[in-house]
Write a structure and sequence with these properties.
Elements: E1 6-15, E2 18-28, E3 33-37, H1 44-52, E4 59-64, E5 67-68, E6 79-82, H2 94-104, H3 109-122, H4 138-150, E7 156-160, H5 168-185, E8 188-193, H6 196-202, E9 205-210, E10 213-218, H7 220-225, H8 230-235, E11 242-249, E12 252-255, E13 258-261, E14 270-276, E15 282-284, E16 288-297, E17 302-308, E18 311-317, E19 328-332, E20 339-342
Parallel strand pairs: 3-8, 3-9, 6-7, 7-8
Antiparallel strand pairs: 1-2, 1-4, 4-5, 9-10, 11-12, 11-14, 12-13, 14-20, 15-19, 16-17, 16-19, 17-18
Helix pairs in contact: 2-3, 2-4, 3-4
Bound molecules: adenosine-5'-diphosphate and magnesium ion.
Residues 44-45, 192 line the site of magnesium ion.
């Protein structure tokens, strides 16, 4: 069996009377770049710390390569974690920081030197080995933390928002390098972020966390194209999916006083929430009535905001549309671009 498979089975985590994970099940395959995505407070870091062995579970099991590691200490698990804060030792040099995990397990000094040089080269910090963390930029510190994680060649990398302290430009560059590094190492990686764009570009698969539960697991494409709940739909995409209350009767949807074709027929009429991605809306002769509120020209795209009924709706286009603020228009979208969710439960229909 190839190294680095991970299973979480029925993980429950309580802090006193509050339950922060309500039964998390997850299966991560060897070599996967797996992203835990969700809003702040949804349980991502807790899940990662449980994988690292830094946090005990209240219920459930953690399996690595088929073995139950639920009760194992962090040092027994052969995993490496990169924290949001980097957690470097300020009084040690870069070389000492990177080599620390090897020194701890009694590796010979010559072997440590070789492994440190190798790990430092992989993240382009070979020229910084004699400095201390205080003499480094944020981006360089982040690389030291990465090098310290890869120096031991663990079976599992755990990264908690490792790019969140970098400025926007550096974050984009480092994101690409991180992806390339993971590919070249081939190591199973579990990566926490609240940034859906980061998740979409990095992940082989994503688990979307909502309120201590996994709402959906899938490839970036699946999560974007087929969100399983209205919460996932509202969290993914820039801007996120437009959501409108509607009544589904037969093969039509009544939205904002207008009837539009539904993607399928319903049995009994029902109250639903209709979702349409901003890129799937067109201004046309037919469709739901809307008023142009605001036009934002972002250069390579334009975001136009409308009110439709009581809701704010956003459209994303390549060019600025030929309308003016205050205009009354109609917004059309095809049945294939129409997502329907149960109004009460939020589940995709
Ligand atoms: N030690 C703790 N005691 C009490 N509540 C905690 C503790 N650690 C985390 N929590 C709570 O658990 C929830 C999930 O936290 P966390 O896993 O850090 O979320 P995320 O990483 O998705 O932002 C939050 O509501 C947080 O306040
Ligand atoms: Mg967190």
């Amino acid at each position: 069996m190839s190294k680095g498979s991970v299973r979480l089975e029925g993980i429950v985590k309580r802090h006193g009377v509050t339950t922060v994970l309500h039964g998390v099940d997850l299966a991560i395959e060897p070599g996967e770049f797996f992203v835990l995505l969700g809003p702040s407070g949804s349980g991502k870091t807790t899940t990662l710390r449980i994988l690292a062995g830094l946090e005990a579970v209240s219920e459930g099991r953690v399996l690595m390569d088929g073995a139950d590691v639920t009760l194992q200490e962090p040092g027994e698990r052969d995993v490496a974690m990169v924290f949001q804060s980097y957690a470097l030792y300020p009084h040690m040099t870069v070389a000492q920081n990177i080599g620390f995990p090897l020194k701890m397990v009694g590796t010979t000094p010559a072997e440590v030197r070789r492994a440190v040089a190798d790990a430092a080269a992989k993240v382009d910090i070979g020229h910084l080995l004699t400095r201390t963390p205080g003499q480094l930029s944020g981006g360089q510190q982040q690389r030291v933390a990465l090098a310290r994680a890869i120096v031991r060649q663990p079976r599992l990398f755990l990264l908690d928002e490792p790019l969140s302290n970098l400025d926007a430009k550096l974050r984009l560059e480092t994101r690409l390098e991180l992806r390339a590094l993971q590919r070249s190492l081939g190591a199973t990686t579990v990566y926490v972020t609240h940034d859906q764009e980061e998740a979409m570009t990095l992940a082989d698969r994503i688990a979307v966390f909502m309120d201590g539960r996994i709402a959906q697991v899938g490839t970036p494409r699946e999560v974007f194209a087929q969100p399983r709940t209205v919460d996932v739909a509202a969290f993914i995409g820039t801007p996120p999916m437009n959501l409108l209350p509607a009544r589904w009767e037969g093969t039509t949807l009544a939205i904002a006083g207008e009837r539009v074709p539904a993607p399928a027929a319903t049995g009994a009429p029902r109250d639903v929430t209709v979702g349409v991605r901003p890129g799937d809306l067109r201004i046309g002769a037919s469709g739901i009535p809307a008023r142009v509120e605001r036009i934002e020209d972002l250069g390579d795209t334009a975001i136009t905001s409308f009110t439709a009924g009581t809701r704010l709706v956003k459209q994303k286009t390549e060019r600025v549309p030929d309308v003016r603020e205050g205009d009354s228009v109609r917004l059309a979208f095809g049945p294939e671009a129409t997502h329907i969710f149960d109004r009460a439960t939020g589940a995709r229909l």
